[in-house]
Write a structure and sequence with these properties.
Elements (H helix, E strand, L loop, with lengths): L10 H34 L3 H8 L3 H4 L1 H24 L1 H20 L4 H29 L2 H31 L4 H21 L3 E4 L2 E4 L5 H8 L4
Antiparallel strand pairs: 1-2
Helix pairs in contact: 1-6, 1-7, 1-8, 4-5, 4-6, 5-6, 5-8, 6-7
């Protein structure tokens, strides 16, 4: 009687494969999030006349859909990185992606200009969390030798959103309407949220020490090392 057994990958091989999947997943999550942020801002510029007609509002009032967004983004950008250190990179990035996705839907359904501006301010806050925490997440996920390449790829994909924004915004504003700029962002930001939930590890920084809280395998290893090692 012949018994065949399937060989399993060695623990080190499984660890390497898991690390590779986590790096690629983190890179994909942050790239999708930054792509959506850039696409959103540069697409909406060309939709302002349509928003003005929808709500019968003046140009200065409609301009707050951009100004409010930028003000909140700038304010959260300053403290976003520190929040990621305190709350954990994964938690902060999830909060930013969830806030951005939710407010995109709210902006698409906004019944008035005041409501639209309010959702845009909250949307900017989400983007202000995503930017610094996302870059930190990529930096932590990729080893030193490949870090510059990973960051370059992330910014390159984000810049694709910058380049596509005016074309997408102009086409949708002239066709389906300005609300579809926000609906188009839902799958992009939603995919960033799912990828973050699946791949980005929780990293908490306290007193200059970075602890990967989501890696259960590291806890026994730390206990085995002991204080004297």
């Amino acid at each position: 009687m012949n018994v065949t057994t399937r060989s399993r990958p060695a623990p080190r091989t499984r660890r390497l494969l898991s690390d590779l999947a986590r790096r690629r997943g983190t890179l994909a999550a942050v790239s999708a999030a930054l792509f959506g942020i850039q696409l959103d801002f540069f697409a909406l510029n060309l939709a302002l006349p349509g928003i003005s007609r929808t709500f019968t509002a003046g140009a200065q009032a409609v301009q707050w859909t951009l100004s409010g967004y930028m003000l909140s983004l700038g304010a959260l950008f300053i403290v976003g990185g520190r929040l990621g250190d305190i709350l954990g990179r994964r938690s902060a990035l999830l909060a930013g992606c969830a806030l951005f996705t939710g407010t995109v839907i709210g902006a698409a359904l906004a019944p008035s200009l005041a409501v639209l501006v309010a959702f845009r301010v909250l949307q900017g806050a989400g983007a202000g969390l995503i930017f610094p925490v996302g870059i930190a997440a990529v930096t932590n996920a990729v080893p030193g030798n490949g870090r510059a390449k990973a960051l370059g790829l992330t910014f390159a994909l984000a810049n694709v959103g910058t380049a596509l924004g005016p074309f997408v915004g102009g086409a949708l504003a002239q066709g389906l309407g300005w609300r579809w700029i926000f609906w188009t962002l839902v799958p992009v930001s939603g995919s960033a949220l799912v990828l973050t939930l699946r791949f980005v590890p929780q990293l908490l920084v306290r007193r200059g020490l970075m602890k990967p809280l989501s890696m259960a395998a590291d806890v026994p290893a730390a206990r085995m090392a002991g204080p004297g090692r």
